[in-house]
Structures are given as C-alpha cells and as structure tokens.
Amino acid sequence: MLDLHHIFAMQKKALFFLLALCALGWGFTSYPTVFAGIAVGACFGTYNFWILVRRMDKFDRSISEGKKTVSLGSALRFGSGIASVAIAITLPQYFHLISTVIGLMIPYVFLFIGVIVSSVRNK
Predict the structure, then answer these.
(1) What's the domain count of the chain?
(2) Distances (CA, A) of 91 to 33, 84, 88, 95, 103
(3) Is the model's pLDDT at 26 over the cut of 50?
C-alpha cells in the first residue's frame, strides 16, 4: 500500500492538472460557472484531504507513543465543505452549486483511482 504522504503528493499533481483543465473550460466554454465550481470544490476537497493526512500523522504518533488518541478533524473538514457550498450559494453568478459539490468529491475519486492503479501495478 502506498504511503499517505505519497498519495497526497499524487493528489496535488492531479489537482493542478484539474485546475488547468478548469481554467481552460472556464475561459473557452459557455459554462464558466460550472468549471469555477469544480475548481473551488476540488480545492476545498484537497484541503480536506490535507487535513486528514495531517491528523492521521498525529493519530499515528499518539498511538505509537501510547498517548490518548486525538480527533481526526471531522468537524473541521465538515466546516470546510460547508464553507465551499456557502461560497457557491452566495455567489451563484460565479460558481455553480452542484459542480462545487462534485468538486468536493474529486479528491476521493482520485484516491479510489490511485488505489486501483496501485493494486493493478502490484499484481
């Protein structure tokens, strides 16, 4: 299995590629709000994944040191998701709500694809 930091590095590379595609879609299609929503959602989704990686490191350290375990930051990630949706709701002329929610899920789709590719390579 891949290290969580390696997975996050791959996520960042995929995010930059996705943001470039969103910038092209925003600039050259008739759906700029959809591509802007995907970009905002993907940024917040990657931020949520970064929070998860950071909290998992703290969790692993506390388990290995025998200390009491800490929270994995679910409330912070939930709040971040609410913030991205709030941006899309308050600025509908710039961001499409449904595409923002889809963008929030893109890092997890990238994670799923990465696991599949990793398991195929290891076979």
Answers:
(1) 1
(2) 10, 11, 5, 6, 16
(3) yes
